[in-house]
Amino acid sequence: MATPALKDLPKVDVDLKSQLESFSPTALKSASTEEKCLLPTAEDVKMEKVQQLVSGIEGFDSTKLRHAETQEKNSLPDKDAIQQEKSQHDFINGIEHFNRDSLKHAETQEKNPLPTKEVIDQEKAA
């Protein structure tokens, strides 16, 4: 953006221009500023909340309440679930307390039937 030419700038009145040039900041009066805090303190807010709560309790009309029946639901498991859990418990208990001494010793025989040379020759020929 180009700067405007002097002829394009707005004209300032001669009186205003002379006042601006002769302005002295030392001629100003000093003034003190005061901060006025109009906000309530935290204690005032707390007291007001307590007062509102107490007035709400005092003015409560208990005749507006309705009677309600409490329905208790039986959350106990049925017979099948109990039986299933008991059988699982017995199974795990049997594994934990198994007597290893009652087992018989067994010998393991490894059988790896490799084909004979004749069988290999037959497969190659086929």
From TrEMBL:
Pfam families: Thymosin (PF01290). One of its GO terms (molecular function) is actin monomer binding. Keywords: Cytoplasm, Cytoskeleton. InterPro entries: Beta-thymosin (IPR001152), Beta-thymosin_sf (IPR038386). Its main location: cytoplasm. It is found in: Cytoplasm, Cytoskeleton. Residues 105-126 are annotated as: Disordered. The keyword Cytoplasm applies. It comes from the Eukaryota. GO terms for biological process: actin filament organization. GO terms for cellular component: cytoskeleton; cytosol. Belongs to the thymosin beta family. PANTHER family: CIBOULOT, ISOFORM A (PTHR20940:SF1), TETRA THYMOSIN (PTHR20940). This is Thymosin beta. It comes from Chironomus riparius.
